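Quick start: read one record
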Amino acid sequence: MFQLTRKKRGRATTRAAAALLGVAGLITAGAVAAQASPASSSAASGPASVHSCSQAVAPGYATCFALKRTDKKAHAMAANGLPSGFGPADLDSAYSLPASGGSGQTVAIVDAQDDPNAESDLATYRSTYGLPACTTDNGCFKKIDQNGGSNYPTADQGWAGEISLDVDMVSAVCPDCHILLVEATSANMNDLGTAVNQAVSQGAKFVSNSYGGSEDGSEGQSDSTYFDHPGVAITASSGDGAYSAGTEYPASSQYVTAVGGTSLTKDSSSRGWSESVWGTSDTEGAGSGCSQDVAKPSWQTDTDCANRMVADVSAVADPATGVAVYQTYGGNGWAVYGGTSASSPIIASVYALAGTPGSNDVPASYPYAHTGNLNDVTSGSNGSCSPDYYCTAGQGYDGPTGLGTPNGLTAFTAGS
């Protein structure tokens, strides 16, 4: 199980230090400890943004990895009359994805707490971009608690932003997919893991997790309890604390596709887009690194990390090149979001477009069999490190962006 006490790590993060200082008060607050008011981003070189969820969490809890721009006015529209931030057509173009597909597939979103406006906000997002309706009534959208019922947890504005980001990204990338939102009772890792198991029991073959916490040595037991689901593509955000934060779990799980983050910009290249590592500062950017506890999966081939290396693949995560999201519970409508909370549901949805995984497969291995079918990210870094590839992009594999970003569906398809 996830443990309720965590070891102190060598690369302590701001979040971890705050948790140690405030742990007594947070534990007194109980299950809602991880849902404090959003904390301001400390990055000085990027646009103004805030963490949707507090980064000061008690041991045994996770935080979400959504970052919301604060320098974009609600309802601000781009020149094309659509909301500011990348939308479905942008993501399809950047990653060579079909504009439709995924019929019959279900992408599950696992988050903590409740967003009471999730379905109505989703309707606005989809209608704005001309996507087919996805509602409870037509069977496309389903919201459940971690036990499979409708006893939803306490509503929380911070996690509501995360939920809005997640369901909107599934809609953007896989508009014909069904969406299953599983709301954990709290951000306690055991509740979140229970929600993952519930998502799989409901039949989802694609499960996105946009949250994480520091490794504590209990990952092996947690893997076997919550994440060992052959034939299910499970994605997890690598984190937003850059290389200095150390590896996050469940991104470091051997059964999960660890999703890093990029800065995505339009350009005049033949692709029409360029990407670099998302690294706003030494403390804000895509997470990466060599796990301290998790053994290296057989399909991962970098040579300087004896254990599990994070990440595997990546997608847009920089709030400076962020995505459009519609949120009314804790928000005022349209906003621009980033964080690896964006890239995880994007990649889960790409897996869904690519088709059902093999029944005994670990889908995290698929990209390693198709390295030529990804956009290799070769510039940028998320900190200082040795060896260089732990934090710096280059040809082939690197920590912050993994093997690269989607270039069509082949790298995420079964039957290599």
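Residues 157-173 form the longest helix (17 residues).
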